Amino acid sequence: MKQLGIVGQSVKRRDGLGHVTGQTQYVDDVFYPGMLWLRMVRSPVARGAIRRIDTARAEALPGVVAIVSAGDVPNNWYTILGLIGVGPPDEPVLAHEEVMYQGEPICAVVAETEDIANEATSLVKLDIEELEPVLDVEYALNAEAPVIKKWGSNTFIYDGMNHRRLRFGDVDAALKQADFVVDGTYRLSPIEHVPLETHCCVVKPEPDGRLTVHTNTQALYFSMDNTAIILQCPSNQLRFLGGTVGGGFGGKVDVITEPVTCIAALKTRRPVKWRWTRREEFQNSSTRAGVKMEYRDGVMRDGRIIARKVRSLQDAGAYHRHSPYGAQKHMANVGGPYSIPNVWADVYCVYTNRQPSSAMRGFGVMEASFAIEVQMEKIARTIGMDSWELRMINAYRNGQMRPVRKVVEDAALVETLQAAAELAGHELPAHLRAMHSNDTGEQTGNHAYGGGGSRL
Amino acid sequence: MDTTTVTFTLNGTTTALAVSPLTTLRTALRENLHLSATKAGCSQGGCGSCTVLVDGEPTLSCLLPLALIEGQEVTTLEGLSTRGGLHPLQEAFYDRFAAQCGYCTPGMIMAAKALLDRNAQPTREEIREALVGNLCRCTGYLPILEAVEDAARRLSQ
Q1: Largest CA distance in chain A
Q2: Which of A48, A115, A201, A349 sees the fewest Cβ atoms within 10 Å?
Q3: Which of A20, A36, A115 is the best substitution to test chain B (most B C-beta atoms within 10 A)?
Q4: What is the pLDDT of residues A42-78, one digit of tens each?
């Protein structure tokens, strides 16, 4: 059992020596002889109809080798999570009919140097008819707002509904029965990941027709499969090299550099590098979704939360990316780590003409946690109870049914709070120190309330 | 295109390079000399990942035209372990998990090197001050501070 000898010991990072000596090879450290540089022409407006893209002056600039536009993309419409059945494909690799957010890729310039490519992007003349943008999630749901998605709605459609719905118990009855009703509306801005390494991709066409793709994606096979679908080629034509990422935090799971760089390499038969500027990283890469959450909790004088009603709007920005999944995770977590026997949630994945949002560390879940934990403090003040006690009374116990119809098997909040209190030097009273995640006795809050969430 | 020839000492070796006048030290290092330890995090002097030493001073190489370092001495992370082994700063960063994604590490180590060269026993506050221009987005600042303290101890032994 020698291989288990590392359990309980500190193990050096596999990539640590490379990092401290500067020998780790990141994608931007890859250079090939004769390598070309790609820069992107992006939409100057949040929403508009493309009338004409005039690349003549850019093409005439000495050093410009190729322009890549929508017509060069074999399968232009995609959505990242199409691989797991999310649809319809709603995002063009390169825009050609309309633009849906400021900074949306329209066409790429490929040149002998990065400076020439940059200069050439400024020579591409865009004729775009500006349209009224939708920039707010509430406005997007308003009947007067322009409909910006092709399926005739500004929301993702979940099983025929314009929101993801959670129904557990009888929330309205429980709210009537509650001693207190505590409301809260919470808004979070989009958050940018700001990895120190910006997005970067280098593609080298091989003599056998395959493409070697260096990418700092966090999702190598996801990117490879989507690229194969966009290029309409078997994935064995793509040799993806990755695994070294200079910071991602969820910001590098979109398939956002590889397809265009591959097409540029195929078109020019030369290696091509596309690296984003810091400005592009801030303004064009996906963010964590901005969110508006409305919580209404029904609470009994003894601290039991007996009802929660939630309406939540997740700002997906212009395209799906990972937001339909994020909104679904949000729905599944509106209860937090607390046992609430009656939960009702309508979670909308809303489209606006903003920079698309996507994955970021616990996206959908942490936003709910923010609202939930502020609610807990509000409830504690409303009923005059210590908020440690409020949390421990309502914490899940093993064996309880969650609103998403999963039985809790790994409850740990009670023990975590006990450990946190000790670390913080906060002395818990004896009855809270005696609690544990397997106690289901009547002394502990909702476990006495009709068997917690076990009623379906 | 007009070029200018700049002669400087790079990690102990005299180096001459013909570049266009506004080529930055960082671009020259990475793209002309293929010394890629020095990173390009923001290209606007905001993140510190391109920090190298110019005549011993920590310098943002992304903002410095190469022409301005004529006759000066440049040290990059590649020049740190001159005798083949790791520099105590590199050992300490490795041993204390002070590198996560690694992208800030070259700049961090060079900024710390400049500090330890002029102050062999810095306080925690002095280390913070020396590294204030170097961002770590994995936010592993505490192990970095501990690694610099550890390196100071190793260097004094």
Answers
A1: 81
A2: A115
A3: A20
A4: 999 999 999 999 999 999 999 999 999 999 999 999 9
